[in-house]
Each structure stands twice: as structure tokens, then as C-alpha cells.
Specification:
The chain has 657 residues and is of the alpha+beta class. It contains 15 helices and 24 strands. β20 and β21 form a beta hairpin.
């Protein structure tokens, strides 16, 4: 069998090979029902929900603000054009009108909210699909498209900004569409200008794992959402035939990134949470395209196992989005059940119409690259075997999985949007939010909430110092500088470090928060131990100050599918050892039942439960009734306390009621 695999320099190469071996041994899995018809139906539901909001000039009007917003209209045009191409001819006029409006907006410099950089890939794909159906109109479109001058007509260009640090995801997204315009012979310049941008500003942002570090070149802030969105668009460009000066280097980076997406995807089909725009549906829509594309590429290379894995990953991403479909065909664009007008968990730039239609467009692109029903599927990495992975670059994230369950831990000590500790537990058979799905964080300029207080909260160590004050790792370390919501934070600001290592003290991984470091991934072979039929991971993370009153704290995790055992060991003079426990409380529609009995605290939500149990004699559990805001709704906070101790142990158990 031929192999579609990573370069020898890919840090998780051994992990990818171990996964492949396990997948072959386990054999194929049954088809999951996500054929192309079902995928197109999901896209059509979103498109048809917004067709009723189309103005006579073709613009899609946001019902909440009463005006056209961002790139809603070209996203609608592109998604509708894919449906027309699939035979839904009743959408032809609507798609055509939306495309005409979109082209006019770029040519006339009137793109809503000054976001023309997102237009070209959407309107060019719509143009390419609609051209055979409307040749006379296509000639008019073509003449208008020929008048676009990238350096002047888009925002994130060096001509307009003269700032290398601002050549971020916007610029890459624009270039992907401009390549399509060039490939259609509608641009006078060749691709040399694209090569310069890609080589100078985008290739340097990729880590060895193929993850795209968005933000300033000297201090990227690295949300996983903008990693996947940028790789999605550059993938569209390569798949359309780009063979410029950096094509081979870009191809290798995107292939590495696709393997990393596959290894990091949760059993529920979600990418890890980190930073702004986390928990938005378009995250998984972009991942659906990446996985669909690489399923097709793996099949072309003759690798049926990786093709089957990527195909299953793409399907899980579609399912992750479909889970949040409303009865009228629109999506809850952030993973909670609040009414859209409440804007709970929205970023300041989040728009309900735009992000519904951008999601639909990304899913439509995935449909265009659907690998087909002949691919035999294989289990996801998060469904089989065990592994502990540490993201490289400045992503500051550790992922641990055993069959059907995944943990996500953040190691940043000074980032208000990426607080330290265990932030997600997801299980294949349980509601995605119950774990919970993401920590709450500090308010630092982006996220809006309808209710609850904004404070950092994760599963993390807490301790009481001699002055009687309780502290927690979630509070992090003051950075010593003003936080810039656009630029992010230098991980070295304020000091501190974390070392992650297997419980057997092998394969040590050090992340000393040094700017620009590429952190090697944990091979985690010690995590492969099997006890009977139980596969487990066991790993330690040691956090070093400056932390109030202590020199360091070691956190040990022993992960099994049915139970997680956590031990915290404190180095320093403390009055009490503690552990913060985030409890899913409300998704905005359904409220969980939280009970505290003896040594345990339990939350019950949508037929499932999570129960944390203290194992130390004399431990007490205190439950804070204050509701804490999170993107997924509301959390409550419990604290396990063991007075006169330097360590504590507790277990977290998840299951069906």
C-alpha cells in the first residue's frame, strides 16, 4: 500500500505512524451516513434560511442590524452557486444577484464593514460555478473583475498598511481568491506578487507541525480558529493549481497541518479551543474542507487508511456543525443555546448572518472536494489508542486522548484568553458541553456575554497562602505590560514556565515560554501502557512561578476512558491545598442540576453527568453559587480544599445517567 505521510522532520511523525498501525489493526469502521446529499442538504438549509433576507439588489440583509454586514453576500453567492452546480436551479437567480452585488462592492470600494479582503475567494468560486449557466452575465462579471487592483482595492496589503505584522490571515485569504481570479485570466499581473507575500509573511508563521500562527510576526497570538481558517484558504489556492515559487514549501506545510488537525480533532469533531473566535461553527466548517481535501489527496496517493481517516474526520466536522442547526435552518453560530440577539459568547465582530453564511460557504467548499462514498472509513486518532501531544510554536496547548475521550490543557500563564489548566473534556458518547467544553476567561476586549460574571476558571490547582488568601493557577501571572487584544501577549512577559513529561519521566517536553521557540512534541510512549483492556495516559505538568506564595506546583493526570485521576503537589508554605472545579450549569436554554454530597460535586446535564470526587481525608468541597460566563453558557465553580496539606488527589468521572 502506498503511503500518504508526513516529512521526516514532522514532529508528530512517530505518533502518526503509531496511529496508522492501530487503525489498520482495528480495521475499518461502518459508514456514518454523511453522504454528499446530506452535506448539501445542510448547506441548503442555511442558504434557504437567508434567501428570504435577500434585498432586491442581491445583498443579504442581517435581520438583527437591518443592513448588509461584512461578507455575508459573497458567502451566500458562493454557497448558493455550489447548490446550483449540484442541480438546485431554483437558486440560480438568487446566487447571480448576490454575486453581482459582491463584485460591485469590491470594484466600487463599498464592501460592508470595510472587509473586501474576504470577497475574492467567495465571489470567484461563485463566478466559476455560475459561468456555464449564465454566459452573457458572466461576460459582464468578467469585465468588472478585470478592473480589480489588489494593492489598492483590499485592506491588508503592504501598499495600504506598510506593516509586515499586519499581513495576517486577511492577506492570505485575499491571495487565495486572487489566485482564482488570475487562473480565470481576469488579472493582468502574474503570481509573482503572491509569491512575495507568501514567502515573506506567511510561510514564516507556520510551525513544524504545519500550524499557522496568526498575529504579528514577532508575537503571534495563535488562535486555533485562525490557524484552520488560513490553512483552509491556502488549501483552496493550491488545489486550484497554484505552482508559484513557494508552492512546494506551502504544500508541505499544509500537509503537515492536515495531519496535525487529524491528530488533534476531538471525538465529537471539534478543533481545540484557544483564543478569540473559539467555539464558532466556522472553525469546524474550515476543518471539514481541510479534511475533505486531504482525504482526496490521500486516496490519490493510494493510501486508503489515511484517506478513510480524513473522510471520517470531515464527516465529524459536518456533524459538529449540524448539531447546532435551528428549526428555521439557521445555525447557532457560537456553541450555546442563547437567542442570537443576546450575543452570548460572541466576539465584538461576530455577526449572526455573516458567520452563518461563511460557515455555509466553507461547508460548500468541502462538498466540492468531497472524497466520495467509495472510501472505507477508519477510526479517528481520538477514537483509538492513546497519546499525549504538545502543540509547537506559541500555541501552548497539550492534548491527551484515550479511546473516545480527549482532554485539552492550556499552558499559557499570562494570556487572558487562554488561561492555564484543563479546559476541555469531551467524550464521544456524551453532550459536548458537559465536560465542560471550554474554560471561562478574562475579559480583555473581544468577547461579549449576556449574563454571568467574567472570571478565569478551569480545572486547575488552588492554594491558600499564610495571609488567608486563596489563589489559583487560572489567575496566571501578571504579564507586566498592557494586553493588546490584536497583538496578543509575549509568552515570556511576567516569567514562569511549564514542563510536561510522561509519568515515567521519559520524553521530556519543555515549554519555557521563550518567544519564537518551537516546542518538540511529546512522543508519550509511556502513555501506551495497558492495564488489562484499559488504555491510559499518565503525564505530569510542573508549573513554576512567580506564583503567589509557592515556588511551583506539579499536576499529574492519569487518564482512562471512564475516569481521570488528578493529583496536585505544591512546593511552598501554604495553609491549604485546593483544586478548582468548573461545572457546566446552563447552555442558555437547559439548566444543569448540580449537587454536592460529602466528598463529591456532580453536574447532570442532558442525560449525562460529570462527578468530581476528593480522595484525601478531611477534604471539603465549597460550591460558589455565582454564575460564571463562558462561550458555551454559564459555569459554576467548586473548590476542593484540604487544610494542612501540600497535595491533594481527586477523580473526574463522566457517564450517562
Amino acid at each position: 500500500m502506498n503511503s500518504y505521510t508526513a516529512a521526516a522532520t514532522y514532529p508528530w511523525r512517530n505518533e502518526l505512524d503509531r496511529y496508522r498501525t492501530a487503525a489498520v489493526q482495528a480495521g475499518p469502521v461502518p459508514a456514518d451516513g454523511w453522504n454528499i446529499e446530506r452535506k448539501l442538504t445542510l448547506v441548503k438549509q442555511i442558504v434557504c434560511a437567508y434567501k428570504k433576507h435577500q434585498h432586491g439588489d442581491g445583498a443579504i440583509i442581517d435581520p438583527y442590524s437591518g443592513t448588509e454586514r461584512y461578507y455575508s453576500t459573497p458567502a451566500y453567492a458562493m454557497a448558493a452557486a455550489v447548490l446550483v452546480d449540484a442541480g438546485h436551479m431554483e437558486l440560480l437567480d438568487s446566487a447571480s444577484n448576490a454575486l453581482s452585488q459582491s463584485i460591485d462592492a469590491v470594484v466600487k470600494g463599498s464592501a460592508p464593514d470595510n472587509h473586501p479582503d474576504f470577497y475574492p475567494v467567495l465571489m470567484m468560486r461563485a463566478y466559476m460555478l455560475l459561468k456555464p449557466h449564465l454566459p452573457e452575465q458572466a461576460a459582464i462579471w468578467a469585465e468588472a473583475l478585470k478592473t480589480i487592483h489588489p494593492e489598492q482595492d483590499y485592506v491588508f496589503t503592504m501598499t495600504r498598511m506598510n506593516n509586515p505584522n499586519r499581513m495576517i490571515n486577511w492577506n492570505a485569504i485575499m491571495i487565495s481568491g486572487e489566485y482564482l481570479r488570475w487562473s480565470e485570466q481576469l488579472a493582468s499581473e502574474d503570481t509573482a506578487w503572491m509569491d512575495c507575500y507568501l514567502e515573506a509573511y506567511h510561510l514564516p508563521r507556520f510551525t513544524a507541525l504545519g500550524l499557522y500562527q496568526d498575529g504579528p510576526l514577532d508575537r503571534p497570538n495563535c488562535p486555533f480558529s485562525y490557524d484552520i481558517a488560513t490553512r483552509y484558504h491556502l488549501g483552496v489556492m493550491l488545489d486550484a493549481g497554484y505552482e508559484g515559487a513557494v508552492a512546494d514549501a506551502l504544500r508541505e506545510k499544509l500537509r503537515s497541518g492536515a495531519f496535525s488537525t487529524l491528530l488533534m480533532l476531538s471525538p465529537l469533531g471539534e478543533i481545540p479551543p484557544r483564543g478569540r473566535s473559539s467555539q464558532h461553527q466556522w472553525n469546524e466548517a474550515a476543518a471539514a474542507y481541510v479534511c475533505s481535501l486531504h482525504a482526496s489527496l490521500a486516496m490519490q496517493a493510494g493510501d486508503s487508511v489515511l484517506a478513510g481517516a480524513f473522510a471520517r474526520a470531515a464527516d465529524r466536522c459536518f456533524e459538529a456543525v449540524e448539531r447546532w442547526l435551528m428549526p428555521d435552518g439557521r445555525l447557532k453560530i457560537v456553541r450555546n443555546e442563547y437567542a442570537p440577539e443576546k450575543r452570548h459568547g460572541y466576539e465584538i465582530y461576530t455577526n449572526h448572518t455573516c458567520y452563518n453564511l461563511w460557515t455555509a460557504a466553507a461547508l460548500a467548499h468541502a462538498c466540492l472536494r468531497d472524497p466520495g462514498e467509495d472510501i472505507i472509513q477508519y477510526s479517528l486518532p481520538s477514537e483509538i489508542g492513546s497519546r499525549v501531544l504538545q502543540a509547537d510554536g506559541w500555541f501552548e496547548t497539550v492534548l491527551a486522548s484515550v479511546p473516545g475521550q480527549q482532554l485539552v490543557l492550556h499552558t499559557a500563564l499570562n494570556d487572558p484568553y487562554t488561561i492555564p489548566g484543563l479546559v476541555r473534556i469531551q467524550h464521544a458518547e456524551l453532550p459536548g458541553l458537559i465536560g465542560p467544553s471550554a474554560a471561562s476567561h478574562v475579559q480583555a476586549g473581544f468577547t461579549e456575554f449576556a449574563e454571568g460574571i467574567v472570571q478565569p476558571l478551569s480545572y486547575c490547582p488552588a492554594w491558600k497562602t499564610a495571609d488567608g488568601i486563596w489563589h489559583s493557577l487560572a489567575e496566571g501571572i501578571p504579564p507586566g505590560s498592557v494586553y493588546d487584544r490584536d497583538a496578543g501577549i509575549d509568552p515570556a512577559s511576567g516569567g514562569g514556565s511549564v514542563v510536561c513529561e510522561s509519568a515515567a519521566l521519559t520524553n521530556k517536553v519543555k515549554a519555557a515560554n521563550k518567544p519564537g521557540d518551537t516546542v518538540p512534541a511529546a512522543d508519550a510512549k509511556a502513555g501506551d501502557r495497558a492495564s488489562g483492556d484499559t488504555v491510559e495516559n499518565a503525564f505530569d505538568m510542573t508549573w513554576t512561578g512567580p506564583l503567589p506564595g509557592i515556588r511551583s506546583v506539579c499536576t499529574r493526570y492519569v487518564q482512562r476512558a471512564d475516569q481521570l485521576t488528578v493529583t496536585y503537589v505544591f512546593e511552598g508554605e501554604i495553609e491549604a491545598a485546593g483544586a478548582l472545579i468548573p461545572l457546566m450549569y446552563s447552555d442558555g436554554q437547559e439548566q444543569a442540576v448540580i449537587t454536592r454530597t460529602g466528598q463529591s460535586v456532580r453536574t447532570e446535564y442532558r442525560g449525562a453527568y460529570v462527578e468530581s470526587t476528593a480522595h484525601d481525608a478531611g477534604a471539603v468541597i465549597r460550591l460558589d453559587q455565582q454564575e460564571t460566563s463562558s462561550r458555551n453558557g454559564l459555569l459554576k465553580k467548586a473548590r476542593i480544599e484540604v487544610h494542612g496539606a501540600q497535595q491533594l488527589t481527586f477523580t473526574i468521572q463522566l457517564g450517562r445517567m
